[in-house]
Amino acid sequence: MRVIVTGGGTGGHIYPALAIAKGILVHQPDAEILYIGTREGMEARLVPEAGIEFAGVSGQGLPRKLSLETLKVGGKSFKALWETKQILKKFKPDLVVGTGGYVAGPVVLTAALFGFPTLLHEQNALPGITNKILTRFVRKVMVTFPESIAHFGVRRKLVLTGLPVRPEIGNISREKGAGCLGLRPDCLTLLVTGGSRGARSINQAMPTVLKHLAGRKDIQVIWATGKATYQETLESLKAQGIQWQRENWRVLEYLKDMPEAMACADLFVGRAGATTLAEIMVAGKPGILIPYPLAAENHQEFNARALEKDGAACVILDKDLTGENLWALVQGLMEKPEKLRKMAQAAQGLGQPDALNKIVKVCLDTAWK
Ligand SMILES: CC(=O)N[C@H]1[C@@H](OP(=O)(O)OP(=O)(O)OC[C@H]2O[C@@H](n3ccc(=O)[nH]c3=O)[C@H](O)[C@@H]2O)O[C@H](CO)[C@@H](O)[C@@H]1O
User: Who has greater pLDDT, 185 or 101?
Assistant: First the structure.
C-alpha cells in the first residue's frame, strides 16, 4: 500500500499526521509512506526526524486580510498544485490523508481531482477553513469532537474517531509519574502548561497562585512556562520574592515528561489546543482551560467549551484571567475531591483512547486495494 500524508504549519497538524503514518505502518509494515509538507514549515525537520520520507512543496498560510501578500501566497499555493501533480504521477498513492493546515489544501485537492482516494482528519471542535472547503472533494472526514459535525456541510462523510495521542498517555501509574519528576504520589498535584510554546498570560497569573501555595505542603506544582518566556517568568518570580526552587514545585521551561506529569496530576491548567485536550481526556484529568484568544477563528474556545459542556473542565477567558481568579478556581476545586473525581470521570468519558485504531481502519477501508 502506498500512502501520502500531508499537514503542516503548526505541530498541531503535524503530530496527528505522523501518528497516522506510524499507525498505518504498524498494521501494514510493508506500506510505503510519503509525507508532503512545505519546505519552510516545521514539518520539513520533524518528519525526517521521525523516520518518514518527506517531499517539500511551496506553500504559506493565507493572510487573513486581502493584500498584495494574498496574491503572493495564492501564487505559491498554485505552484504547490503543480508540484503535487508531479509527485502524485510518480508515487501513485493508494490513499492520500490530510490533517489540515495550508499545505494539506493543495495536496488533497489535487489528489481528489485526479481521482485518488482522499481522507481528512479535523482536530478542532471548530473546523479549519481548509478542511471545510475540502470536505466536498474527499471520501470521508474523520473528526475529533462531536461538536464539529454541525459545522460541516456534508454530514454523511463524517466519522467520529478522536485524535491520536502518544501511547504513554493514560498508561503510566501515578507512582511512576510522580517518581519520574521527583514528587510524591500521595500529594495533590497541579499541572500547568501553556501548550507547546507557553502562554504569557498564564505565566503572569501563576505567581499569585504560587504565593497562596507557598505555605502548603499538601499541594505539589508542575509548571512548564514555555521556552520563550521562561527567563522573564523566573525574573518576575524573583522580583515578587517567590522562592520557586522547592522540594514540591517544579518550574520548567518545557515538560518532556508530559505523560508522567499527567499521570500524577489531579488538576490541569492550560490552553485548549486539540492535542492537549485529547491527552487530558484520555488521561481522565479535570481541567481549567484558558483558550488562546488569537487562535484562528477562536477555535480554542470552541474546544474548551466542548469539555465544559460535559462537566470535564472549567473555562476562564484570557481577557478575564487574573492571578486571584485563577487561584480561586484552583483552590475551589482542589478542596473538593468529589468534584475533581466527577470532572475526571467526565473527561475520561469523552476520551478516545482508540482513536488511532479507528483512523487506521478508515484509512485501510478507503485505500485502493
Ligand atoms: C496556538 C495554536 O493555534 N495552537 C493550535 C495547534 O496546537 P499546538 O500544537 O500549538 O498545541 P496542542 O495543545 O494541540 O499540543 C501541544 C502538545 O505539546 C505537548 N507539550 C506541551 C508543553 C510541554 O511543556 N510539553 C509537552 O509535551 C502537549 O502534551 C501536546 O502534545 O494546533 C492544534 C490542532 O489543530 C490546535 O487545536 C491549537 O489551537
Answer: 185
Residue 52, C-alpha cell as written in the block: 518518514
ipTM of the complex: 0.98
At 29-51, the pLDDT tens digits run: 999 999 999 998 889 999 999 99
Give, for ligand 1, the residue of 276, 289, 302 to mutate: max count of ligand atoms closer than 8 Å to Cβ.
Answer: 276
Residue bearing the CA closest to ligand 1, atom 38: 273
Q: For 243-247, what is the mean pLDDT?
A: 96
Residue 282 maps to which CATH number? 3.40.50.2000
> Which candidate, 247, 127, 243, places its Cα nearest to that of 184?
247
- What are the cell numbers at 41? 514549515
Domain total in the chain:
2
User: Which atom belonging to ligand 1 lies closest to the Cα atom of 224?
Assistant: 24
Ligand 1 pocket, 196 CB below 6 A? yes
What is the C-alpha separation between 217 and 227, in angstroms, rounded?
A: 28
Closest ligand 1 atom to residue 16 Cα is 34
**Which atom of ligand 1 lies at the shortest distance from residue 165's CA?**
31
> Can you say whether the dihedral through the CA atoms of 272, 276, 282, 288 is positive or negative?
negative
Best of 131, 252, 275, 299 for a ligand 1 pocket test (most atoms within 8 Å of beta carbon): 275
The model's pLDDT over 122-144, given as tens digits with 9 standing for 90+, comes to 999 999 888 899 999 999 999 99
**Residue 106 shares a structural domain with residue 199:** no
What is the span of the domain harbouring residue 94? 2-165+353-366
